[in-house]
Specification:
Elements lengths: L8 H9 L5 H10 L4 H14 L1 H28 L10 E5 L4 H5 L2 H8 L8 E3 L16 E5 L6 H13 L9 E6 H4 L4 E2 L1 H8 L7 H4 L5 E6 L23 E2 H10 L7 E6 L1 H4 L9 E4 L5 H11 L4 H12 L2 H6 L3 H18 L13 H13 L13 H24 L4 E3 H6 L10 H6 E5 L4 E5 L2 H16 L19 H14 L6 H9 L3 H7 L13 H12 L7 H12 L4 H12 L8 H13 L7 E2 L6 H11 L4 E3 L7 H11 L8 E2 L1
Parallel strand pairs: 3-8, 3-9, 4-6, 6-8, 13-14, 14-15
Antiparallel strand pairs: 1-2, 1-9, 5-7, 10-12, 11-12
Helix pairs in contact: 2-3, 4-7, 13-14, 13-16, 14-16, 16-17, 17-24, 18-21, 21-23, 22-23, 22-25, 23-26, 25-26, 26-28, 27-28, 28-29, 29-30
Keywords: ATP-binding, Cell membrane, Cytoplasm, Immunity, Innate immunity, Leucine-rich repeat, Lipoprotein, Membrane, Nucleotide-binding, Palmitate, Repeat
Protein name: NLRC3 protein
Organism: Corythaixoides concolor
Length: 672
């Protein structure tokens, strides 16, 4: 309004298009543009006297919107990661969660599906909140899923920053990005206080709660929320000023009892997303992992000054099928790339014994931790602590963080606050150390300081290190935090307890933890970490008995589940590969007939995921009985090209195969 006298008619028209002024003002602006300062005063008087809502919009709401845009541009522009973000501009449109996404650990999902899903459609980021057709309406509740480290928070930052620059979704007046980490700091909130506490410059939250401006509320990281969402027992609340429990507030917002005119976008790991009833979700999307070119670009970005090293790292990743699948996730690709690069640099050092290239998960993380412990970090100059001092410091830090990691894992807790640190006896000054900053990230929110491990697998490896060390001297069950339990003596008893709990856990969230625990008993990991975190050759006392126990877990019955496959992964981590090699050799020679015992069936299910023999075609001709076929059903789902000829199947086996082909998880493209 102040500049109205300086505008030409054409400039006024452009300014109106770029603003959210109501239609009735536009006509008046057209008439008065270029008529001098008197016109501006006339327009202001006209609006004040004839339309108080319009005057509020111009004098209060419009500046508030502008302030919000500037605030988001400043905050998200600085924190946006560089690197290949193209994959985030196109999301996969999915029809709900598959069984494996609802039940399995992220890493098991990746391994079983080879990082792929049968997708027919994708949706550009700028159309995420638009109708899919001319006759449909915009989605109110959108959910975007992705495994840990795939880039959910980066996607949110990219969207918010692009919107704040007014490049996409200009019809949305307010985008309100919140994280569940922030919400964890509150016990009770009202809908309006939720807005004001996160965005103090929004002085009129009723403008949003009343639905006067199109709003998008973003809730990032449902898997990090401290309280499970219970939609079946939601206490209905329709008053935006009433303070209620935060979990109840979220369920009321998603149900549409509060902020009913706002669109809501939730991001989450797949298992946590299953808390939201499918009937409430209007649109579900999934973030895809790296393609081949994107993985190369990412590694080139990591090793900008050494393209040779980048090529070598990529070669090693591609040579290991499981590792290659895992590295489609950016966070895992960074950890693996750093570890392999550290190995390659050290393998050229003639003064040291040539180490073995990391192949197992435990070896990758051992190299990563050794790199962090020794201060030989890619982004910072090498630290010059005396070895003894460095070892003592690192043991203290890893011990403190390990206990936090382990009991956090048991409680499904991945975000921690200062009160958690104090409860676990962690000296806050320790958190300032460079080692700590490499393992534990810190985030300042409006109301508190949040800490979280740089990736879920970092928490799991630290938890395994803590358990491994504590199990050697513990006299009570370590899974009972209070320490009140029947006596449990000896490392092997504690090892068995951990494996059994993993096998019994319905949510499968201990699977990777026990893989790491088994991996700490491997000769290669002991060699890497002895002197730092492990005692040299101590694994020899327990390894053979641990292997026997794991093999005993396979010899049960003809139901080959993901639990059996994970036990095979544990044997691989502990460097006991004889069973898998025997079955793989038989597959190559097409001599599996008659040798598929329960143990060998478990090995076969494992090989279907990891073996190069199964990459182009899975040949199970002339070797399956009805019972064996039934036991392998859940694993056959993920074979893209499957040969089952000459198995003498009758109708009952054909019915089983029919049920597989109609499953949502099924990835079979070709069946012979």
């Amino acid at each position: 309004l102040r500049r109205l006298d300086l505008l030409t008619a054409e400039e006024a028209s452009r300014a109106q298009e770029a603003s959210s002024l109501p239609e009735q003002v536009r006509a008046v602006v057209d008439v008065l543009a270029g008529k001098g300062s008197h016109a501006c005063q006339s327009l202001q008087t006209f609006i004040e006297t004839t339309n108080s809502q319009l005057y509020l919009h111009i004098s209060v709401y419009e500046p508030m919107v502008q302030k919000h845009l500037e605030s988001l541009q400043s905050y998200y522009g600085n924190g946006l990661e560089t690197g290949p973000l193209q994959r985030l501009t196109n999301l996969l449109l999915v029809e709900g969660l598959t069984d494996i996404q609802q039940k399995e650990h992220d890493i098991l999902q990746m391994e079983a599906t080879k990082g792929l899903r049968n997708m027919s459609k994708s949706i550009p980021l700028e159309k995420l909140f638009l109708p899919l057709s001319k006759v449909s309406i915009p989605p109110r509740i959108s959910v975007t899923i992705g495994v840990a480290g795939i880039g959910k928070s980066t996607l949110v930052k990219l969207f918010v920053y692009t919107w704040a620059k007014r490049e996409i979704n200009r019809d949305i007046i307010f985008v309100l990005p919140l994280t569940f980490r922030e919400l964890n700091a509150y016990e009770k909130l009202s809908a309006e206080r939720l807005i004001c506490s996160a965005f103090p410059h929004i002085t009129e939250p009723n403008y949003i709660s009343a639905g006067a401006a199109r709003t998008l509320l973003i809730l990032d990281g449902l898997d990090e929320f401290k309280t499970p969402l219970d939609f079946s027992n939601t206490v209905v609340c329709t008053d935006p000023k009433k303070e209620i429990q935060v979990d109840n507030l979220i369920t009321n917002i998603i149900r549409g009892n509060l902020l009913r005119d706002a669109s809501v976008w939730v991001t989450s790991r797949p298992t946590a997303a299953s808390q939201i009833p499918g009937g409430l979700v209007d649109r579900m999307t999934e973030i895809r992992g790296f393609g081949a070119a994107e993985m190369k670009d990412f590694l080139d970005q990591m090793f900008l000054d050494n393209r040779d090293l980048s090529s070598q790292v990529l070669h090693h990743i591609r040579a290991n099928r499981t590792l290659h699948v895992m590295c489609t996730v950016p966070a895992f690709c960074w950890i693996s790339g750093s570890s392999i690069a550290y190995y390659l640099k050290n393998s050229t050092d003639q003064s040291q014994e040539t180490p073995v290239i990391p192949k197992t998960l435990s070896e990758i993380y051992s190299y990563y931790f050794k790199m962090a412990l020794s201060g030989d970090w890619p982004e910072k100059p090498r630290e010059t602590l005396r070895i003894e001092q460095a070892v003592n410091n690192s043991k203290k830090i890893v011990g403190s963080l390990g206990r936090l990691a382990f009991y956090g894992l048991l409680k499904k807790k991945h975000v921690f606050y200062e009160q958690d640190m104090k409860a676990y006896g962690i000296d806050l000054s320790l958190l300032q150390s460079s080692l700590c900053s490499r393992l534990l990230l810190k985030e300042e929110t409006q109301s508190s300081t949040a800490y979280y491990f740089s990736h879920l697998t970092i928490q799991e490896f630290l938890a395994a290190l803590y358990y491994y060390t504590a199990a050697k001297r513990a006299i009570f069950d370590l899974f009972t935090e209070s320490g009140v339990s029947w006596p449990k003596l000896g490392f092997l008893n504690h090892f068995k307890s951990a494996v059994q709990r993993s096998l019994q856990a319905e949510d499968r969230q201990l699977d990777v933890f026990v893989r790491f625990l088994a991996g700490l008993l491997s000769p290669q990991v002991n060699k890497l970490l002895s002197g730092w975190l492990l005692v040299k050759d101590e694994h020899n006392s327990f390894r053979s008995q641990a292997i026997s126990f794991l093999q005993g877990c396979l010899n049960t019955d003809y139901v080959i589940s993901s639990r059996a496959v994970n036990t095979m992964h544990c044997l691989y981590e502990i460097q006991h590969t004889e069973i898998a090699k025997t079955v793989e050799e038989a597959m190559k020679n097409e001599s599996l007939a008659g040798m598929l015992t329960p143990v060998n069936c478990s090995a076969l299910a494992y090989l279907l995921q990891v073996s190069d023999v199964c990459m182009e075609e899975t040949n199970l001709s002339n070797c399956l009985t009805y019972n064996v076929c039934k036991s392998l059903l859940s694993q056959l789902l993920f074979c893209q090209n499957l040969r089952l000829d000459n198995n003498q199947f009758k109708d009952n086996a054909m019915e089983l195969l029919g049920s597989v082909l109609s499953g949502k998880d099924c990835q079979i493209q070709k069946l012979r």
